[in-house]
């Protein structure tokens, strides 16, 4: 991201969540009513315009509203990823997690929409510029968490451990760490230092769900994000992800890709489900690794 500016990728991802919440996704059970609220005004206008066009087409064709072709792949990927990570949170809470740390939170709405937060302290960690935008947009929402704290951190230069301790995070309490859509924008050194801090601050039984992207896929997204000043510099293979987690003392218990997400959550077998089948071979190879302390 460019110095002094909020992350553009956070707005783009939130726009895709808003479109999915508006009915343009084939992902079963997807809902994120916070997304449209959290969007900055220009992005929110774009979202309403796209939904209006899609719904008009539905009325004319008596069919399910669909996003423009160029949006469909990214929209379904984000909707799938969100559903998968939400379920990981519910599993962690059932296993005793009472702290939720969202690393690189962007315009994430989980503190305002997830169930099972009444007994949980939520810590949103992000770059100060992006976090300033988030706090302004979130004024219209009510947190469901027992405690909800914002923790400004630059992953490339600041101490995550010191920032979280100062914010009231307790290393003795089981924590679920959610690291979504961030590693691709970080150097290998920043990825490893973050994982080291996560491990050091995790009580036994704590888990991290980390998204990462394997190299070798084809997509227009990296080029677009490079234009926005947010190039994908942190691609890693599955073997590399496992190695970095293990080096931090975290044991991988699950590593799933788009095929697994699709089997769990895709509602139908019609397009845009067809677009999902192409994601693992033509798009960026997104995965989620879940590891335990």
What keyword list fits this structure?
single chain, 293 residues, alpha/beta, Rossmann fold, seven-stranded mixed sheet, 12 helices, 7 strands, globular
Would you write up a description of this structure?
- The protein is an alpha/beta fold.
- It has a single domain, classed as Vaccinia Virus protein VP39 (Rossmann fold), CATH 3.40.50.150.
- The chain is built from twelve helices and seven strands.
- It has a seven-stranded mixed β-sheet with strand order 3-2-1-4-5-7-6, sandwiched between helices.
- Helix 1 (8-24) runs parallel beside helix 3 (41-61), helix 1 (8-24) packs across helix 4 and helix 4 packs across helix 11.
- It is globular and about 55 Å long.
- The model is unreliable at 218-229 and 278-282 (pLDDT under 50).
Layout of secondary structure:
Layout: H1 8-24, H2 35-38, H3 41-61, H4 69-94, E1 99-103, H5 110-113, E2 121-126, H6 128-137, E3 147-152, H7 160-167, E4 175-179, H8 188-200, E5 207-214, H9 221-227, H10 238-247, E6 251-257, H11 258-265, H12 273-282, E7 285-292
Parallel strand pairs: 1-2, 1-4, 2-3, 4-5
Antiparallel strand pairs: 5-7, 6-7
Helix pairs in contact: 1-3, 1-4, 4-11, 4-12
């Amino acid at each position: 991201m460019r110095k002094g500016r909020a992350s553009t990728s956070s707005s783009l991802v939130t726009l895709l969540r808003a479109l999915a919440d508006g009915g343009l996704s084939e992902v079963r059970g997807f809902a994120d009513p916070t997304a449209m609220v959290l969007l900055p005004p220009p992005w929110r206008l774009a979202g309403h315009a796209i939904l209006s066009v899609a719904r008009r087409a539905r009325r004319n064709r008596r069919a399910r509203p669909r996003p423009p072709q160029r949006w469909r792949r990214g929209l379904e990927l984000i909707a799938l990823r969100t559903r998968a990570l939400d379920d990981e949170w519910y599993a962690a809470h059932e296993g005793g997690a009472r702290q939720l740390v969202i690393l690189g939170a962007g315009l994430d709405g989980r503190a305002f929409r997830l169930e099972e937060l009444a007994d949980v302290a939520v810590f949103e960690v992000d770059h100060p510029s992006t976090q300033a935008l988030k706090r302004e947009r979130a004024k219209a929402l009510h947190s469901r968490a027992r405690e909800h704290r914002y923790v400004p951190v630059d992953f490339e230069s600041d101490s995550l451990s010191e920032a979280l301790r100062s914010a009231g995070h307790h290393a003795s309490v089981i924590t679920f760490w959610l690291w979504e859509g961030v590693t691709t924008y970080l150097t290998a050194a920043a990825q490893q230092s973050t994982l080291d801090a996560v491990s050091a601050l995790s009580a036994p039984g704590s888990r991290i769900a980390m998204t990462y992207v394997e190299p070798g896929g084809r997509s227009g997204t990296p080029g677009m994000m490079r234009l926005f000043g947010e190039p994908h510099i942190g691609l890693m293979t599955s073997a590399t992800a496992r190695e970095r987690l293990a080096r931090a003392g975290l044991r991988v218990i699950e590593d799933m890709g788009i095929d697994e997400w699709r089997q769990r959550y895709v509602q139908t077998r019609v397009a845009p489900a067809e677009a999902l089948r192409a994601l693992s071979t033509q798009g960026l190879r997104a995965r989620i690794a879940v590891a335990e302390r």
